[in-house]
Amino acid sequence: MKQYKIQITDKALSDMEEIYNYIAEQLQAPKAAMEQYNRIADAIETLDTFPERVKLMEAEEEHALELRQMPVDNFYVFFHVREERVIITNVLYSASDISKRLRDE
């Protein structure tokens, strides 16, 4: 089975750090913050095989960019598949204005 190299952008790492900090500090739940962070990281690691199982986004602009959106609990992991690589671009809260946040990047 084909193996892909996972590349996480600085922006995606920053998104994950913001999620962790919000849960740990604002919600005062550091244990839950680490568990959520690990669930997202574990889900990202599964993309090393058959990342195409996650369908392309339907919105025209994101579809043209071949952007994929994988749900993980109340968050979405956004990524591209390029040759032998899976490039994680963002990790966003699902209730946020996703289209606006992706355009602002």
Supply the key terms.
105 residues, YaeB-like fold, 4-stranded mixed β-sheet
According to CATH, the fold-level topology is: YaeB-like fold
What number is the mean pLDDT?
Answer: 92
Q: From the alpha carbons, calculate the radius of gyration and give it in angstroms.
A: 14 Å
CATH class: Alpha Beta
- Please state the overall shape, judged from the principal axes of the Cα atoms: globular
Largest sheet: 4 strands, mixed
Oligomerization = single chain
Proportion of residues in helical segments: 40-55%
Distance between the termini: 34 Å
Number of helices: 4
Strand/helix succession = EHHHEEEH
| Cross-sheet strand order for the largest sheet | 1-4-3-2
Strand-residue proportion: 15-25%
Q: Low-confidence parts, pLDDT < 50 over ≥5 residues?
A: none
Number of domains: 1
Explain how this protein is built.
- The structure is a single chain.
- This protein is an alpha+beta fold.
- The chain is 42% helix and 25% strand.
- The chain has four helices and four strands, in the order βαααβββα.
- The protein has helices at residues 10-26, 30-45, 60-64, 98-103; strands spanning 5-8, 68-72, 75-82, 85-93.
- A four-stranded mixed sheet has the order 1-4-3-2.
- A hairpin with a 2-residue loop joins strand 2 and strand 3 (75-82).
- The longest helix has 17 residues, at 10-26.
- The mean pLDDT is 92.
